[in-house]
Amino acid sequence: MPVYEKEKGILKPKIRQKEAIKEHYRENLEDYLFWSPSGNMHFGYWRPGLSFFNREEQIKEMNKQVLKACELKDGQDLLDLGCGIGGFLRSTHKDNESLKLHGITLVEEQIEKAKTFEESDFNYCLGDFRNLPYPQESMDVCTAMESSCYASGESKNDLIAQAAKVLKPGGRLVIADFFIKADVKLDECTAKVLKKWGDNWGIAEIGRLDKVEQALSNNEFEDIKIRDVSKNLIPSLLQVPFLVLIHLMILIFKGKCNRSRWEHMQSCLLCIPLAIQMHKFSYKIISARKVKDATN
Residues of the chain whose pLDDT is less than 70? Predict the structure, then answer.
């Protein structure tokens, strides 16, 4: 489902990105639960002491690594930008039940599914993290678990500026996602693979690390910490082709393999050739502290 197409050499929107995102996540809701029955929609983090093959434990460990970077205190407010079906929020609640947890997503069906899990009264909101409906300086922490890729441009400035608006002074923004490394020029083949990967998931443009860091500085964030955890993702990445094949056979057998689900499986597989190019791409956990109100 191409988000962009070339017309006389100029890149123009083919369909509205929001509609592409909504359609993708509506059609593939159950596929994400096949990846993680606990409702997490991101890769896992392996460390010594964890089973190399236990994907669910690695996914929960990624939640712990991001939560650690949040530096939360009891009773504080956390907003998950692009919360999916609430997997990260549930992990956070188990770690600290005193926290006030909020999540925003474009997809109504994700909120409905999230509410079917046994959980506390999280504050889910249907909306766009590029235009947050929360009061200024109302949150202590904002997180983006593999959702920053849906923000605009290589700098992801709209997400960062909105987070700066709703964060209290001294609040933290934590992003976990894939990025293009600074000053990397993608060859034509890699660029085509990246475009196909993004089109299938409604992603217009992946973030570029140096531009994201600059956007954080421009929006008055400091104490910027960038941690490369690419190698920690390898065990969960290696499981992708096997799970895709198994799930694809199940879908075909049940007669449920429609275009959207086939495109989803394609992008899952395309993660592998992109991820192994560690000289071009890397997976980072980025944390930054807001100095004062930034209104962009």
Answer: 1-15, 119-120, 292-296
So what's the pLDDT on residue 14?
Answer: 41
* d(C-alpha 296, C-alpha 283), whole Å: 27
SS3 of residue 141 by DSSP: strand
CB of 108 closer than 8 Å to CB of 89: no
Q: E strands of 14-162, at which residues? A: 77-81, 100-105, 123-126, 139-145
* Domain range summary for the chain, segments of one domain joined by +: 4-290
Residue pLDDT, tens place only, 145-168 = 999 999 999 999 999 999 999 999
CB 148 within 8 A of CB 163: no
Candidates 3.30.70.890, 3.40.190.10, 1.10.760.10, 3.40.50.150; correct CATH number of 4-290?
Answer: 3.40.50.150
Four-residue CA torsion sign, 42, 46, 52, 56: negative
